[in-house]
Write a structure and sequence with these properties.
180 residues, alpha/beta, Rossmann fold, 4 helices, globular, binds inosinic acid, binds magnesium ion
Length: 180
Amino acid sequence: MLKDIEKIYYSEAQLKEIVQRLGAEISEDYKGKNLLLVSVLKGSVIFMADLMREIKVPCAIDFMCVSSYANKTESSGVVKIVKDLDINLEGYDVLIVEDILDSGKTLSYIKKILESRKPKSMKICTLLDKPERRVVDDVWADYSGAEVPDEFVVGYGLDYDEKYRNLPFIGVLKREVYEK
Ligand code: IMP
Ligand code: MG
């Protein structure tokens, strides 16, 4: 698995620092609110598990699973809900927890659906942001861990063809792996 990695962008220690900073910001901003963390599966699962333990105010959690990919490295914009939330969003300050904000098509779709369910507020927290790749104008990261250039990254929950999610760091996948 390691032989497929070109370089490491964020080590385990750096990711821990990033998640601690985000947790501290969120804990401050959501004092006295009714926080619900919505994890977008599967990519955000490790980030979610670490982030929620850095949040020092009460929060509820829920999970939704969407699939959006036409091919293995590019978003299609056609998003399907594979697993919906269990919790009714009314009265909640929803914070969507995502692994990476790329074209933004996936979150644009999720945001519209969740907004129609009338949460008290809704914001987005993403571990990684690829701002160069954005094609929608209604989605931005209210909380962002780190920016990455236009390269395909894996690890810490992020996959290529369902693999590499269990790497403890974020690294760039060698082009030969997905161009062959
Ligand atoms: P978007 O709809 O183009 O913003 O795609 C968002 C989703 O694509 C993310 O939640 C990831 O699952 C996936 N994705 C985008 N870029 C990468 C990447 O570099 N590595 C792994 N998955 C990615
Ligand atoms: Mg994802």
